[in-house]
Amino acid sequence: MTSDPVDPYIFTSDSLPSDPRFMPPLTNGLLGWRVFDPIMHMGGVYNGEGGTCHRGNIPCPLAVQMKMAEDGRHTYKLDMHSGVFSHSVVTPGFEAAQVLLKRSETSTEPITIQLESSFKPQSDDIVFQKAPDFEGGRHIFGQTISSEVPGGIRPFVHLIWTPITSTLTLPPDQSQSSWVFLVAVAGSDESVRLCYEAGLGLIDTGDLRPSHLRSWAELWKGSSIEVEGAESLNRALIGCMFYLLSSFSSLREGANAPLEFGGVSPGGLSNGNKEEDYHGHVFWDQDTWMYPSVALFCPRLARAVLEYRAGTMEGARANAQQMGYEGLKFAWESAVTGRDVCPEDIYAEQELHINGDVVLAFQQYFYLTQDLEMFREGRGSEVVWGVADYWVSRVTWDPTEQQYHIKGVIPPDEYHFTVDNSVFTNAVAQRSLQFAVELSGLLGHTPPPTWQDVADKIKIPFDPELKYHPEFDGYTQGSGVKQADVVLLGYPLDMSMTPEVRRNDLEAYEAVTDLLGPAMTWGMFALGWLELGDAERAQKLLQKCFKNIQKPFQVWSESADGSGCVNFLTGMGGFLQAVLFGYTGFRVQKEHLAFAPLLPQEVDALSVKGVSYLGNKMDWLIKSVEVSVSVRKPAEESGSQEPSALQVVLNTGTTIPLIPGQSVIFPRQPGQIRKVNSGSYCRPL
């Protein structure tokens, strides 16, 4: 007799984590909450000025747990198919599941359970006051105590919720009954009333839960990655995708959104209290670590990240001016205004690579979508060109080396301060300058000649004898580093180098990287070895990441010992990229999407569904000897972009048209997905 296969999307436990930090977060890009916690957070709502700025704590009426007199079997379940967490208890006489009571035997006695609440309608960050009840719900509203910058906006928060009683009773004449409790949160009285009314309407029609399930089904249909043959890896990938997708607002364009997307912080919206998880600030983590995988699947969600950055341009301009430079200097730690809210000035002043990281996200988006509207009307060109102006004003010319230098920076490896010519910083600056020139040509803008001049002559440190890239001027080979730095030259920067140099960089820095450094690091080393064809070495490095995954709900910690930021989306993003861009070899290029599939021995197959490219949705199935690719029919998708006709161009020279609704299969080998030249073939009717 065989047991039913375990659903890799469902995580269950008979007990809760001993450390409440590892309770599962439930978020939607606009609101975030850690299950059973009395606090939730709302996108863009911060309290505190400057370096004390942190996510404002909002009391959560759903901070309720079931208690009962009878002993029973408890089950806690996180269903990632549907984004639903449930707590159920089975006793000899009844079954209770939040919040359903069901008799399991005939009885003439009423059944009562306790609802233990830790909710208090108050906050240290928001001064709340009562408002008149609305449609049977309690209503409070308040404003944050202090603004991010002097004289700045202090946002309002409105809550309406169904009162929760301390007990629920199933009468003797009923076999089962259910209760629904609703909470609405918004930034104005009108919005919160509309939200609450919409929720009540869904309850009345019985569509509250079904509409939620449909939304998640649509998300998974458009973006999933699974492997066969490696169960723990498969579950880890699903967990990463679930928490990352949860962190971006999936509200459709044109929806009457009660809140605005406020970027993604390392610990997501469920975290970010004062002195916790980097205060909920937005770092390069969003643009470099979380964004690439989301952009490959969901251009609409990716665009929200770009719009967040565009919305902080005035703060970025002020940051640059404060330091005496031109253009835009995006904040190392950003909240709402774009002014740097980093508690320590040295990071705000020296972690300059954030500028290039932001532009790289814009460049990847454009290469995936060819959406010039984002750069014309969406202010994307202002971002790219403003960063280019900053780099030109920030470099200094060295007459001896006949090169431009960037001095006094902190590289991604934060164990080193005030160094000159960080190789990653200079390389990402070079790439953003090159894209600024390219974008100028597309938009009919005449770029200043200094953009190209600096891009051509900026110093990229390289040791010709040891044939590797020193991390910065004066770096001594063998010195310890905190995290992935130089290895990022190969990916995501795609810097041209020989396989020998790529290997030397990987070996030199793998040996000296802190084992307790941030979780995203080993995924980048794994990805590098996959580039070089060593899948088994890559897999050994990827295995290190599993130490950061905390059971039972797949919540990541920043460090392998469980310390640091929790729900560490940055680590999840790095891990996901190692598989999504490593096993497939996907590289987002100017005129094509490159691929070079390679699987480790323990993985029988990789399925990637919903890859978005030039208005198309593609499904990939990669096996050890062959690859299958299909383009979905446009009618199946809801995007507004007119899809381009695509073809597979293998490195052997073979060209295979991709006909929507049909699959093509070819031997596993490198190649490209390219746009078909106009008139090459017609789509079938």
Automatic annotation (TrEMBL):
Cited Gene3D superfamilies: 1.50.10.10, Maltose phosphorylase, domain 3 (2.60.420.10)
A GO BP annotation: carbohydrate metabolic process
Record protein name field: Protein-glucosylgalactosylhydroxylysine glucosidase
Pfam families hit by this protein: Glyco_hydro_65m
Protein family membership: Belongs to the glycosyl hydrolase 65 family.
Catalytic activity: (5R)-5-O-[alpha-D-glucosyl-(1->2)-beta-D-galactosyl]-5-hydroxy-L-lysyl-[collagen] + H2O = (5R)-5-O-(beta-D-galactosyl)-5-hydroxy-L-lysyl-[collagen] + D-glucose
Protein's job: Catalyzes the hydrolysis of glucose from the disaccharide unit linked to hydroxylysine residues of collagen and collagen-like proteins.
GO molecular function, one term: protein-glucosylgalactosylhydroxylysine glucosidase activity
GO cellular component terms, semicolon-separated: cytosol
Glycoside hydrolase family 65 central catalytic domain segment(s): 272-477
EC number of this enzyme: 3.2.1.107
Keyword Protein transport on entry: no
